[in-house]
Design goal:
By secondary structure, the protein is α+β, with helices and mostly antiparallel strands. The chain has six helices and 20 strands.
Length: 302
């Protein structure tokens, strides 16, 4: 159950980059144990960049990776699918510098992984088990990790918009809960921000087919998949961004008004605070009851 896993076979798809607008061919391929998730640019002669926090590159409405001349953007949805479905090692080959946005959620990547299948490898998986609280605050944005016997995410969002004042959700992340309750949640944005983003060279591939667009009077495209689809998508994002620590996490992650910049900075901080966690080969129960969870507003003082 706790062996490392990879894909059973290769599988491919095609799509559009959300921000670049470029057509992309993406292939997911098996990889050896202890190799992790690696992005390979076929258009650059097969140069690779590992999906680790030390290789985080540009953060501008998406998470990007960079190593030397290799860049890959918008990796978070695919990484969330990998870590939540227990895929530790894979090669992600693409012929463009951005992972395709598909329908704006992780559901198409879940489908690809299920179609490819997974197989165990002759190496133990190692989990990052949180031992004591770690937190980061930037203005009114806050994120923290607390000890727990499993991965749980509590997220809250707040916007100055009449249709999206506040949403929150807490969920224990398992393969089943991710597939059914988090993966289908789509990326979202506000109509008033679209033109500004496009002037910055972003969202060039965005459409009502791959994002939920919120206008002044309602959602412009089809109906929401969940009443609280927006906060569910933020949970999807933070799972993908925190996957950059390189190990599945055993802990309670609490975030308020976070984004990719905060998520990835926190992932780096967690790794630097080596006394706050340990690597274990199986998520064994804690020896003592976990401490009372502090409200995220107090995370910076913990």
């Amino acid at each position: 159950m706790h062996a490392q896993r990879t894909l059973r076979r290769s599988i491919s798809c095609a799509g559009i980059g959300l921000h670049s607008g470029n057509k992309v061919t993406l292939s997911l391929k098996p990889a050896q144990a202890n190799s992790g998730i690696r992005f390979r640019r076929s258009d650059l002669g097969g140069l690779e960049v590992p999906a680790t926090v030390r290789h985080v590159g540009g953060i501008n409405h998406a998470t990007g990776l960079m190593r030397d001349a290799v860049t890959v953007d918008t990796v978070e949805h695919l990484l969330a699918a990998f870590v939540s479905l227990g895929v530790d090692n894979a090669i992600v080959e693409l012929n463009s510098p951005e992972v395709p946005i598909m329908d704006g959620s992780a559901a198409p990547f879940v489908y690809l992984i299920h179609e490819a299948g997974v197989k165990p490898l002759a190496a133990h998986r190692r989990y990052l088990k949180v031992l004591r609280p770690v937190s980061l605050s930037r203005g009114d944005k806050r994120i923290a990790l607390y000890p727990s016997d499993h991965l749980k995410v509590t997220y809250s969002i707040a916007f100055d918009h009449p249709l999206l004042r506040h949403q929150s959700r807490a969920i224990r992340i398992t393969e089943e809960s991710f597939v059914e309750e988090i993966a289908p949640a789509r990326t979202f944005g506000f109509l008033e921000d679209v033109e500004m983003m496009r002037q910055q060279g972003l969202a060039l591939g965005g459409s009502l087919e791959n994002a939920v667009v919120i206008g002044n009077t309602g959602v412009l495209n089809n109906a929401l998949r969940f009443e609280d689809e927006f906060v569910r998508h933020k949970i999807l994002d933070v799972i993908g961004d925190m996957a950059l620590v390189g190990h599945p996490i055993i802990g309670h992650l609490i975030a308020h008004r976070g984004g990719h910049a905060l998520h990835t900075a926190f992932a780096a901080q967690v790794l630097e605070d080596a006394e706050a966690w340990t690597l274990v080969e199986a998520p064994a129960p804690a020896a003592a009851p976990p401490p009372v969870m502090l409200p995220v507003k107090d995370a910076a003082r913990a």
